[in-house]
Amino acid sequence: MRARTRRGIPLLLMLLAWAPAALAAGWNYRIGEEAPSFSLKAVDGKSVSSADLRGHYTVVSFMTTWCPFCNASAPHLQKIFEAYRDRGVGVLIVDIDEENKPVKKFAAKHGLSCPILMDPDGKVATLYAPPKEFIPDLERQEVMIASFAIIDPAGKVAFLSLNDKPEEFDARLTKLRGRLDELLAAK
Amino acid sequence: MRAAALLTLVLAAGAAHAALPQFATVAVDEAPTVHAGESVTLRVTVSITPGYHVQANPVLNPALIPLTLTVPAAPFLDAGKPVYPRARRMRLAGSDEDLVIYDGTFVLEQPVFVGKDSPPGEIALDGALRYQACDDRRCLLPRTLPVRLRVRVVDGGR
Q1: Regarding the domain delimited by A29-185, which CATH topology (the fold level of the hierarchy) does it fall under?
Q2: Is B142 in contact with A66 (Cβ distance < 8 A)?
Q3: Which of A55, A96, A134, A136 is most deeply packed, by most CB within 10 A?
């Protein structure tokens, strides 16, 4: 009996060591939550609100023009916009704390034709950010730079790229695309 | 033996986002001795937090924010154009464009011209180092660090 207990101790220690890592791998921030509501002006002056997103899936990209990751992923975001438009999927960019001029230049350079919303003080980005325990040193709007979300037709968050912990940034948006395919297939 | 005389500056926060933690430190040559009417080149040593890199100067994509040392003129002192070190090329996975970056520790050279009418004594120039850092997964808001350049003028102008 004692021998069995002794044999069990290493197994228990292994499990205890594994548990925090497993919990950390299971980040699930915002998933299933009501997407924070917002109303922002697009770079072309039109107003867009979160209520406009109801009834269809929407991919939301939080970006800045000076961020290399945002530049790298912009062509792939445009590809998603074109590929999924006919399936009722919308794409929105939320630009964090920038002026109109560089944003228009960025859109022209990357041939972006989806709406680009201006978030002048990063408040909307902050609303979508994971809580402070996620990279506590950084401002919440900063955490959201180069991140992506999918909002479902009921207005709930169905994907947040920050929950994935890739070794490198997913510039081709492979995981987002995969999740979008899953969601559309389940409809 | 300038390296032995480095003055490490305490890194205060940037102007735009005062509370942001810094991902770089700066050290500047201790005030070298220079005659009025002459120039001297100061070495500004920048160290980037391991695991991070900053955009080099110049950048390949003009939308990106290059590391920039700005030093305004002061009475009897003028700063020339800083000389930035050679950058390293890298490409993000999935990207079609190269980036030019600095990481680790590197040195900028900042020429300083002392006016011929300068009185003797120590003169300081308060400049700023702006940089935009990224790691393999995320990019941070641009930050600014204060940089104080000092020279000791001897044999002042007559």
Answers
A1: Glutaredoxin (3.40.30)
A2: yes
A3: A96
